[in-house]
Each structure stands twice: as C-alpha cells, then as structure tokens.
Specification:
single chain, five-stranded mixed β-sheet, 163 residues, elongated, alpha/beta, 5 strands, Rossmann fold, 6 helices
Length: 163
Amino acid sequence: MARTFAYLRVSTAGQTTDNQLQEIKVAGFKVEPRRVVTETVSGNVATSQRRGFTRLLDRLEPSDVLVVTKLDRLGRNVMDVGTTVAKLAALGVRVHCLALGGVDLTSSTGKLTMNVLNAVAEFERDLLVECRLRDGGTVSALACEFNTSRQTIMRVRDAMPAP
C-alpha cells in the first residue's frame, strides 16, 4: 500500500514550514505526522548533502508518494532537482509538486515538464554566460561561478554571434 510523505524545507531558522504542510493538506494529501520530513538548509545544497533528505530516502519504498509544495523545496539547481527526481523514480517513488498542478514528476507529463524546465534553465544560464563573457569574464571564472565545466562555457562562447 502506498504511503505518502511530505518533504518541507526552509532556508533559515527564522522561517517555518507550517504553510507548506497546510498547502499539502489543502491539496488533499493525507500525510501522517511521522512521514513529514522537515529541515532547515539552503536550497543550494544538493539533496544528497542534506541530512533530512538522505534519511527520507532510506525510508521510501516502491509505490510511495513524495509531495513537495514547489520544486525549489528540492533544490534551486534544476539539474540537481532533475537528478533527485530521477533517483526517486528509479526507487519507484512518485513525486508530486503542488506548484505544477500536483503533477507527478515521474510520469510522462512530469518528465516533459522537467525537460522544459531544464531547457529554460540552460537557456537562462547560457544568456548569463554570454553577458559575462562580453563583460570580460574568463572561461575558468565563469565555469566556477556557474558550477559547470570549462567545455560548457567554451561551447556558449563559440556559439555567440560576432560583435
């Protein structure tokens, strides 16, 4: 029988997860208190580096459901979120995101949504890289800043239109 878990995250100790839990209840998900995982950690920290999320992974079983209010609860980096969702899908766990209409991110529709979000994120990153290159940024510095490879920065640089 499928169990429903909620993952609630805030970035600072001054914030509360109460509103996230309320949103999940209003959306119709029944989550037992022992299946609510909360933690205070920056969204920039990969899920694999979060103590609470790691413990949650150990508890999840095939056919379980994980509910989050927004994708940024899983992470700020779309690539990291995609990796996390893929890992959960491989475990047989469905991931529902309320901000995306409650879509299961492991379903065909959810995968399409994630692919579109990844494409938009890559496009935005490439635009930022182009701007910084025009402003004199170096390939190495930009690779560090955007947490990507030098090859990615060079690909963007080489695809830029001539000034």
